[in-house]
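Supplementary Methods S3. Complex input for the magnesium ion-bound model.
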Amino acid sequence: MDSLCMAHLGPRKKRPRQMGGSMASPPQDIKFRDLVLFILEKKMGTTRRAFLMELARRKGFRVENELSDSVTHIVAENNSGSDVLEWLQVQNIKASSQLELLDVSWLIECMRAGKPVEMTGQHQLVVRRDDSGSPSPEPQETPPLALRKVSPYACQRRTTLNNCNRLFTDAFDVLAEDCEFRENEGSYLVFARAASVLKSLPFTIISMKDTEGIPCLGDKVKSIIEEIIEDGESSEVKAVLNNERYQSFKLFTSVFGVGLKTSEKWFRMGFRTLSKIKSDTTLKFTRMQKAGFLYYEDLVSCVTKAEAEAVSVLVKEAVWAFLPDAFVTVTGGFRRGKKIGHDVDFLITSPGATEEEEQQLLPKVMNLWEKKGWLLYCDLVESTFEKFKLPSRKVDALDHFQKCFLILKLHHPSVDSGQPDLQGGKPWKAIRVDLVMCPYERRAFALLGWTGSRQFERDLRRYATHERKMMLDNHALYDKTKRIFLKAESEEEIFAHLGLDYIDPWERNA
Ligand code: DCT
Ligand code: MG
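Predicted complex, serialized as structure tokens:
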């Protein structure tokens, strides 16, 4: 919840629109003292210049309002080096040889990195010497990054966790979630796709010009981006975050086992807090919800990478005790390189196991953990997998493999790692774990499906259907034209069947 709210509930107030004025940052805000920037207004315009100046100051850069001797870096847009020199001459300022003349792309990369980045030939403005006899290269007109082709499908974009547009994507994530709570699928997709495409961009949106040529940004989305650029926040997002229904659904669905139906019911009954719900004697809870309330504090505090690794050791130990040749792979967010998650997902498969042994593995593991007292909650879902079933048409379809939804008691390492004890003094933490068991020949499909992200999976299936006349799900890939199932031993082969460039798991954070 906090990560969603940060950008909107932060201390940023609506500013009066006079950013171009003399708003020098207090000196303690300057982090990079070796650089003194001056941003040229010519061809950039007052508003964009003021925006960039403020952004750079917020990131700890020293930016001067006026050009002076102390300036070390001049940043310009749509100007060649010669243009800048000419302008300096008109201002009667002699450029020292130390002065760096840079394209705005350098500043934008610095903003993204939160620190000065190396200046390469791409950033340095070329000065054309008309008086010299030798021809020198023409100033390079690099096309704006935004104009490079961005695919409307997440499975054709590389989306790492390095999100340069968090201010915007947090906003669209909130709006998408609100639509999800209202079961408004159409609007949900509009906002989810907008957030997803913005997460893939290698640059920060700073002006509306940067949004040109980017797919999945309709008028509604663009008007929200514009408002955020101008005011630092969106009034619509603010309204959602303050909305009682949204807040209640957010709270209720944070309980394991509580979905939209239950949230709706509790909201209609007038409940607004979990404590009132828990203490109400007329309400009936499922086994899942009971566990959700019992281990609530542990489950809302996210799983760390270290905890995921500790769970991974336990899973491997248990699985290998029964099937020594099994492959155990962490999937979900942790496979995509996330540092935290709401659960830990595993895919298990064995090349040598018979169908019987395969089916017996998860029950045996559960039995073992039950005896050790580690199973705080367990829901074993039997397989409904059929070999010749066509892949599902639904983009969000659940798969048919045998699986376990668990809450596991993870004991803290016996040697104190120096971590603060956040679990109220008890020596363990409850962790949500999903185990999926799949037939060995389906492992590539299962792995691809369980690695996510949700948006990446949705777009893979959408791409297969609309661009390739194929059907893809967590079990299989079917070519409708040739009427055959396409086999795959690895994720790479599935991408190749689909005619897609391979995207690594850490680039699937769409
Ligand atoms: N998945 C899917 N469709 C769904 C739900 C899940 O394709 N309706 C896939 C995508 C990710 C994977 O299963 C694991 O799901 P989660 O654990 O819910 O997501 P996650 O990416 O691991 O994120 P989190 O950090 O919240 O666990
Ligand atoms: Mg997960």
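Confidence is low (pLDDT under 50) at residues 1-25, 129-147. Residues 332-333, 338, 341-343, 345, 396, 449-450, 452-454, 457 surround 2',3'-dideoxycytidine 5'-triphosphate (ligand 1) (CB under 6 Å).
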